[in-house]
Amino acid sequence: MTITNNKSVQPRPFSKQQLRKIFLDCDANKDGLLTKEEIKKAFNNLGAIIPGYRAWEGLKRADANKDGCVSSDELEGLIDYADKLQAWPALQHADANNDGCIDMEELRDLVAYAGGLGYKIK
């Protein structure tokens, strides 16, 4: 997941397995707990524009026991959060006229873009 403000660059989304590996690779001391700084490093590696904010938000969403870390039991919540962020570049790309809305023509382009990434639209 690369979050960018350059609309001409549209990366392929990471799979959940790839996201898991990226987060686990940032567990510096290999204790099975991800601290806010380790999560920030992962979001930085993913190309987040504001990795500190993404780490704070990811920790807030995933840290079920509120101990300030994401454990292996809580990791799926962090991965889900990161996975959902991957939609933003496509939505930003779809808003070709930058009016903050996606009209019918832009929606058709978005569906074509998603199809090009291998998504099936029903």
Produce the secondary structure layout:
Elements: H1 16-25, E1 33-34, H2 36-45, H3 51-62, E2 70-71, H4 75-85, H5 87-94, H6 104-116
Q: What distance lies between the first and last C-alpha atoms, to the nearest angstrom?
A: 24 Å
- Kindly report the average pLDDT value: 85
The chain-level structural class is mainly alpha
Q: How is the biggest beta sheet arranged?
A: 2 strands, antiparallel
What is the percent of helical residues? 40-55%
Number of strands: 2
- The percentage of residues in β strands lies in under 5%
Radius of gyration: 16 Å
Low-confidence stretches: 1-10
SSE order: HEHHEHHH
Global morphology: elongated
Tally of alpha and pi helices = 6
Q: Main sheet: which strands, in order across?
A: 1-2
Quick synopsis:
By secondary structure, the chain is mainly alpha-helical. It contains 6 helices and 2 strands; from the N terminus they run αβααβααα.
How would you sum up this structure, described in words?
By secondary structure, the protein is mainly α. The protein contains six helices and two strands, in the order αβααβααα. A two-stranded antiparallel ribbon has the order 1-2. Helix 3 packs across helix 4. The radius of gyration is 16 Å and the shape is elongated. The two termini are 24 Å apart. The N terminus is likely disordered.
Which descriptors would you attach to this protein?
mainly alpha; two-stranded antiparallel ribbon; elongated; disordered N terminus
